[in-house]
Amino acid sequence: MNARPKRIAILGGTFDPIHEGHMALGQRFAHVLALDELVLMPAGQPWQKSGVSSPAHRLAMTRLAATELARRLAATTNENATPDAPVTHVSVGTDEVERKGNTYTVETLQAWRPMVGADASLSLVIGADQLVGLDRWHDWLHLFDYAHICVEARPGFDLTNVSPAVAAALAQRRCDAEAIRRRPCGGIFIDQTLDLPISATEIRDLAHRGLAYGAKACEHVPDTVWHYVRDHHLYED
Ligand code: ATP
């Protein structure tokens, strides 16, 4: 019997800190795509952002979140899983934090394609805010040569209000989850199940403002990650 091609997704981000919005995104796509593996990948030095916590802190928080996400996935039933799809394995990708200089997603996906094999379904998971600006990403059209793009809705970002270039890509590539599971790359799948008003910017801001606000911020971050934030005095300055 031939083994079916693997289904892998990468959820990349600055993860400063990794929060419940990312956790929900990972859980949702692990289920709807019946993933074999979900890779949480902290960005190196994001070229669009300044004043970001060190890669070492963001990587440590991502590792804590990955353990928690694996625990949550093992504790929930996935109605999309096939008998040959085990509980999604959650891993942490260090590719981008280890790379020197600017890190571009297209290069990461290009490097992953031969590692996963030509037949594997490889997806990049992003929020709606990223889809809206996708045509400003380095070499963005080549992303589709290596992976699908799977998008989740996010409050404040109107998926019907994208640039003509992104609208053209959507018209050509939009497909459903089943097509993403079956094909290796090239599709865009938009899931509008979640609508979570959580952002790392708000969490950093609340933590910065002190204890009372910190109590509010910690609701949006897995416990182990929040302990890390407090123990290392992140976002206090
Ligand atoms: P910041 O507020 O610092 O810009 P962020 O909350 O957007 O950070 P990132 O680490 O930059 O977090 O996000 C990583 C990925 O997760 C991006 O593709 C982003 O769109 C997505 N994402 C983050 N939060 C949400 C959310 N609440 N709903 C949907 N997608 C999200």
Topology:
Blueprint: E1 7-13, H1 20-32, E2 37-42, H2 55-74, E3 89-92, H3 95-98, H4 105-116, E4 121-127, H5 128-132, H6 143-146, E5 148-152, H7 164-173, H8 177-182, E6 188-191, H9 200-208, H10 211-218, H11 223-231
The chain binds adenosine-5'-triphosphate.
Count of helix runs: 11
Q: Looking at this structure, what is the CATH superfamily?
A: HUPs
What is the strand tally? 6
Distance between the termini: 58 Å
Q: Helical proportion?
A: 40-55%
Poorly predicted regions = none
For the sheet with most strands, the description reads: 6 strands, parallel
Q: What is the CATH first-level class name? A: Alpha Beta
Quick structural gist:
The chain is of the alpha/beta class and about 240 residues long. It has helices at about 20-30, 55-75, 95-100, 105-115, 130, 145, 165-175, 175-180, 200-210, 210-220, 225-230; strands at about 5-15, 35-40, 90, 120-125, 150, 190. It contains eleven helices and six strands.
